[in-house]
Amino acid sequence: MRYLNISHNIRVLLREGTKWEFTGILSTGDDDEKSRKWYPYIKRFILAFPTIIICLFLKQGFNKDFIGYVMAALAIFIGLFTNLIIVLYQRFALLPKEGDPLVKSNKDALNNTKIKNFIRQFTFVTGKNLLIATIVIVLISLYLLFDSLEIFNPLNFTCINSLKDFNKENLENFLKVFFVATTRITIIYLLIDFCLLLLYVLGALFAFLKGEYKQ
Fold first, then answer.
1. Domain spans of the chain?
2. Of 138, 155, 158, 178, which sits with the fewest C-beta atoms within 10 Å of its C-beta?
3. Which helix (H) or strand (E) is 133 found in, with range?
4. In the prediction, which pLDDT does 122 show?
5. Given its phi and psi angles, is residue 27 left (phi above 0), alpha (psi -120 to 50 degrees) or beta?
6. Concatenated DSSP letters for 7-35?
7. pLDDT in tens, 28-50
8. What is the mean pLDDT of residues 68-82?
9. What are the start-end ranges of the H helices in 58-105?
10. Sign (positive/negative) of CA torsion 180, 182, 185, 186?
């Protein structure tokens, strides 16, 4: 049953990460949520174009140097940002709660809400990115298990003309093409999404700090 909890927790993380990805730290609530309904689908549609283009040019698979660089960068990201999330939670726990006498004015309440929402946004969007990084590492590891697939070019194969041409060899080729194409597309899509989310989080962080420094 614990594995069911893992699945539930991942769904919650993805849902909250996507929600806060398109939510401002001073969001007005339900109206904003309705207007953001289609944002994730628009984003996926846009990301599909560079993913397909890169896959078409990536005929011989991923370069081993590139794979090593990506794996190292993702591992560093996971370690660094996991610690940062823990630090932010400790900061969140120290913030005044609703109705706390320390919140003496509307300005204090607004500032307190802004800080809390920023920590929520950073935590969930970064958490989603940590999950993406982990998935990419797992997919690349599976990809490296089969050395022959690293230089496998799916574009070298064509569809059979009739059922008479269907045989064991064609079935094996189809499975290879499907596995390689799906894996490469997924890895590239997730890497692009990872970079966008990382830039988004860093941009949100410095925009928040800029606002705080002006006070």
1. 2-214
2. 158
3. helix 106-144
4. 92
5. beta
6. HHHHHHHHHHHHHHHT--TT--SHHHHHH
7. 555 456 657 778 888 889 999 99
8. 92
9. 64-94
10. negative
pLDDT in tens, 88-137: 888 888 777 766 665 666 666 777 788 888 899 999 999 999 999 999 99
Distance CA 142, CA 90 (A): 36
Q: CB–CB of 83/126 below 8 Å?
A: no
Q: Hunting for tokens 């969930």 — which residue is that? A: 124
User: And the tokens for 205?
Assistant: 């962080």
Residue 120 near residue 31, CB atoms below 8 Å? no
User: What burial class does residue 128 get, using C-beta atoms within 10 Å of its C-beta: 0-12 exposed, 13-18 middle, 19+ buried?
Assistant: buried
Structure token digits, residue 76: 């560093």
